[in-house]
């Protein structure tokens, strides 16, 4: 088996996870394997810090790209790999062991999958999920408060000092390399249906 690899990227809180959940709901594990960059962060104690001592998870230095690339290649060639779930700073979360099993289609998602050349070179199809800045900021506030326990002041600081500069330097410049750009300020229903149809064909080859 040599899988068809789809890369999905976009700015933080552009709606990548929501889009992927909708997409994956129509596929079985035998058809599609989903590998998220979010499971490949270095341990918290190895994360870079900014001038105020705040850990910056929104930089390429935060990611174990060597392991990320190796696992994508392994799954593409028919191997099963496993990794411990990354829980950020949530003390109540018990990390699970996640398995990535071979499938005809592999979805690779993350904010740096177009930027990091060894990952980008593995992608057969590149999809960019796009949203306006004010939409992304609103979503980020809600997500980080609920999932990661940050207060609004922390979220705004991280967005201004980490998230926004990262988008400008490492994400937005590679939008032009995308095969598909999907706007997601309100909905993505039509684009989702088109992609589902295309990947169904790839999954049944």
**Number of structural domains:** 1
State the share of residues found in helices, binned by percent: 25-40%
Total number of strands = 7
Judged by helices, strands and strand pairing, the structural class is alpha/beta
Strand content: 15-25%
CATH topology, by name, is Rossmann fold
Q: What oligomeric assembly is this protein in?
A: single chain
Q: Strands across the major sheet, in which order?
A: 2-5-1-6-7
- Alpha-carbon distance between the termini? 11 Å
State the low-pLDDT regions, or none.
none
Biggest β-sheet, characterized?
5 strands, parallel
Shape descriptor? globular
Could you name the CATH class?
Alpha Beta
Arithmetic mean of pLDDT: 91
**What does the radius of gyration come to?**
17 Å
CATH architecture: 3-Layer(aba) Sandwich
The CATH superfamily bears the name P-loop containing nucleotide triphosphate hydrolases
Number of helical stretches of at least 4 residues: 6
SSE sequence, one letter per element: EHEHEEEHEHHEH
Sum up the structure in keywords.
5-stranded parallel sheet, 6 helices, Rossmann fold, 205 residues, alpha/beta, 37% helix, two-stranded antiparallel sheet, globular
Describe the structure.
With 205 residues, the protein is α/β, with parallel strands linked by helices. It has one domain (4-198): Rossmann fold. It has six helices and seven strands; from the N terminus they run βαβαβββαβααβα. The chain has a five-stranded parallel sheet with strand order 2-5-1-6-7, with helices on both faces. α4 crosses α5. It is globular and about 50 Å long.
């Amino acid at each position: 088996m040599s899988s068809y690899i789809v890369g999905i990227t976009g700015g933080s809180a552009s709606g990548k996870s929501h889009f992927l959940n909708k997409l994956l709901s129509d596929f079985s594990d035998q058809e599609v394997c989903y590998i998220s960059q979010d499971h490949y962060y270095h341990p918290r104690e190895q994360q870079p810090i900014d001038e105020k001592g705040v850990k910056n998870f929104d930089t390429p230095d935060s990611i174990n790209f060597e392991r990320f690339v190796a696992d994508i290649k392994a799954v593409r060639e028919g191997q099963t790999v496993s990794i411990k779930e990354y829980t950020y700073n949530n003390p109540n979360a018990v990390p699970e062991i996640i398995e990535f099993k071979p499938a005809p289609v592999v979805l690779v998602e993350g904010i740096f999958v177009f930027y990091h050349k060894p990952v980008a070179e593995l992608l057969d199809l590149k999809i960019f999920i796009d949203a306006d800045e004010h939409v992304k900021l609103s979503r980020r506030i809600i997500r980080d408060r609920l999932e990661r326990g940050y207060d609004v002041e922390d979220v705004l600081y991280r967005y201004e000092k980490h998230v926004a500069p990262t988008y400008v330097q490492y994400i937005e410049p590679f939008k032009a390399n995308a095969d598909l750009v999907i706007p997601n300020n309100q909905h993505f229903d039509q684009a989702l249906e088109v992609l589902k149809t295309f990947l169904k064909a790839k999954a049944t080859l």
